[in-house]
Design goal:
Elements lengths: L2 H12 L12 E4 L6 E8 L2 E5 L6 H10 L5 E5 L11 E3 L31 E4 L6 E5 L6 H9 L5 E7 L2 E8 L1 H4 L15 E6 L12 E5 L3 H10 L3 H14 L7 H13 L2 H13 L1 H6 L8 H7 L6 E2 L2 H15 L3 H8 L9 H10 L1 H5 L1 H16 L2 H8 L12 E2 L5 E5 L8 E7 L4 E6 L8 E12 L10 E9 L2 H6 L11 E7 L6 E3 L2 E6 L3 E9 L2 E3 L24 E5 L2 E3 L8
Parallel strand pairs: 3-5, 8-10, 12-13
Antiparallel strand pairs: 1-2, 2-3, 2-6, 4-6, 7-11, 8-9, 14-24, 15-16, 15-17, 17-18, 18-19, 19-23, 20-25, 21-22, 21-24, 22-23
Helix pairs in contact: 5-6, 7-8, 13-15
């Protein structure tokens, strides 16, 4: 079926779509410490329950994994390998063919018919690659009767023709009584008529799709988004936007994010524009190192540079990147000065400010601008903030006086999930019979008497101002994957929020300084998929993929289904009211 017809089918059903709650047969994984593994839970009659491991095999596990967005299953586990679940045992003696959409469609003893206990809960481990195609499953929204009427192409009172670059390419018929019930289809009728013409781009025409389950590659998402935008199909537009979040991180050259940003501006799609800006802000360091960096449009940099959520090694690194961009872009004087004004000079140390005149090519051609901003920064570094607020009227709680998300060792540290790798991290070994002991190690030898958690201790300045350079604050960052690890570090955790990052602070108490610490989530060191806030000395680790878990889903999906690297960034700033939020 060609894309225009798929689009029309979407219009048939989208008007009847409500935001669905959980349905009988929906599945999720729990207590696996990662989104691609855990014991299997299935939904039935308003509650979640588990599956017994009788007859459980890889075919059954693969049905679960594919339903949750993975390619396949690598392990089918029993005997509560991921711990005992809760709730009723929903299914027992499951026997799947491998093509089913849910375990509910497989042969079994039936719902709630089991003599199992939770020590026999079934589990799975899914492969680390998601499907190369994505599915739009309309089978639940489009009734079988309506589908048969539409597919029969009989009894029609509406003629639909598709024009590709002004030439007729496809024609089929529809049924007004069905279509008029859909608000998304109203944009097609400028005037009531029995003939409707749709105009599409040539790139949309050759694709073949099928009902009721339509699989299409990410390369076709933009095509359908164009159709949705042109004809006001907001729900289809939103569905495509969710796939853009998968598409953006897949191009390390950054050409795709830049192209999609330009497309978002051309189509006035503010949601896609925000999505592109968020990805580029969190991955700004990688963008500055890509071949596409000199071709980044000036207007895009004007949107990115004022953002406080820019993830960069330091403000100096940001300024040097702008310097490199200006020569590759051959930007005008006005464009360069507009960008330099958006750099937070107070976040650079006095010695860095002094060296700009020797190390930055822009300095000579914009000397007055740099001297003015340097003076502003030196006041910040040498004058107590109470005087700056009183005599200069400066708001030191925002703008250039607050740090961005700086990933250099001065302000951050990282840990790696121990289930993936314990290399090059500091591990904490705890004897069940003794106190906590820290070791710096590149390996770990398992022992039944010891547990270990990825751990890193580090120090930062108390504040970015040079007035505080000799005052250090000690921090400890730990990856908490179990309730036991939370207890060991005196954190209060619930099973639903695990795994989580824990942060502790010692020294450096000052009621004039507050912290808004951030935790970037990295996928194999390739891109930042999300940034979470530290609240109550813990930073949530979102679900890497949308797997119906109780945790929030990562802003950008992690293809492996699991984050393996986490960074903690310390972000101190002045409190002008001196009340302290330590």
């Amino acid at each position: 079926m060609a894309p225009p017809r798929l689009f029309w089918v979407w219009l048939l059903v989208a008007g009847t779509q409500d935001e669905l709650s959980m349905n009988d047969g929906d599945m999720r994984l729990a207590d696996g410490g990662a989104t691609n593994q855990g014991h299997v839970e299935i939904f039935y009659r308003g509650q979640w329950g588990t599956v017994c491991d009788n007859l459980w095999d890889l075919t059954d596990a693969s049905v679960v994994c594919r339903a949750l967005g993975f390619e396949n299953a690598t392990q089918a586990l029993g005997r509560a390998a991921f711990g005992q679940g809760s709730g009723p045992i929903m299914l027992d003696e499951v026997q799947c063919m491998g093509t089913e959409a849910s375990l509910a469609d497989c042969k079994s003893l039936g719902w709630l018919k089991s003599n199992c206990r939770h020590e026999r809960d079934a589990g799975v481990v899914c492969t680390n690659e998601t499907r190369s195609t994505h599915s739009l499953d309309l089978s639940r929204e489009l009734s079988e009767a309506l589908g048969q009427i539409f597919d029969s192409q009989q009894g029609c009172d509406l003629s639909i023709s598709v024009s590709v670059q002004g030439e007729d390419a496809l024609g089929f018929c529809g049924h007004t009584v069905i279509l008029t019930a859909n608000l998304e289809a109203q944009a097609l009728w400028k005037e009531p008529s029995s003939n409707v013409t749709m105009s599409v781009d040539a790139e949309c025409h050759p694709l073949s799709l099928f009902l009721p389950r339509i699989d299409f590659a990410l390369s076709s998402v933009k095509c359908f988004h164009k159709l949705a935008s042109a004809y006001g199909a907001k729900q289809l537009q939103g569905y495509c936007a969710s796939l853009f979040a998968i598409l953006l991180p897949q191009d390390p050259s950054f050409q795709t994010p830049l192209d999609l940003y330009a497309y978002a501006l051309a189509t006035e799609d503010t949601l896609l524009e925000k999505l592109c800006l968020q990805f580029l802000a969190w991955n700004f360091e990688a963008l500055t190192q890509a071949e596409a960096w000199p071709s980044v449009p000036t207007d895009l940099l004007q949107m990115l540079l004022p953002r406080s959520d820019l993830v960069v090694p330091s403000e100096l690194a940001l300024l040097k990147a702008v310097d490199t961009w200006s020569w590759g872009k051959r930007a005008s004087r006005e464009e360069v000065e507009g960008l330099v004004e958006k750099v937070s000079f107070p976040m650079m140390l006095p010695e860095e400010l002094f060296e700009l005149q020797f190390n930055l090519t822009l300095y000579r051609s914009h000397k007055a601008l740099f001297q003015r901003n340097t003076l502003q920064a030196l006041e910040f570094h040498t004058v107590p903030f109470q005087l700056l607020a009183r005599y200069k009227g400066l708001n030191l709680t925002e703008g250039a006086y607050k740090p961005r998300i700086y990933t250099s060792p001065t302000w951050s540290a990282s840990v790696t999930d121990s289930s993936w790798s314990a290399r090059n991290s500091q591990l904490v070994y705890q004897s069940r019979r003794g106190p906590l002991v820290k070791y710096s190690s590149n390996y770990f030898q398992a022992s039944s008497d010891y547990r270990y958690y990825p751990y890193q201790s580090f120090q930062t300045p108390q504040h970015p101002s040079f007035l505080f350079q000799d005052k250090r604050v000690s921090w400890s960052l730990v990856y908490l994957s179990t309730i036991q690890s939370c207890w060991d570090y005196a954190f209060s955790c619930s099973s639903n929020e695990l795994p989580v990052l824990g942060l502790t602070k010692s020294g450096g108490s000052d009621r004039t300084i507050a912290y808004e610490n951030k935790a970037p989530m990295l996928y194999e060191g390739l891109f930042v998929a999300d940034v979470t806030d530290v609240e109550g000395w813990k930073a949530a680790i979102p679900s890497a993929l949308d797997t119906n878990s109780s945790k929030s889903t990562s802003f950008f999906p992690c293809p492996a289904g699991h984050f393996n690297s986490f960074r903690m960034v310390i972000c101190p700033f002045y409190l002008t009211n001196s009340s302290g939020v330590d």
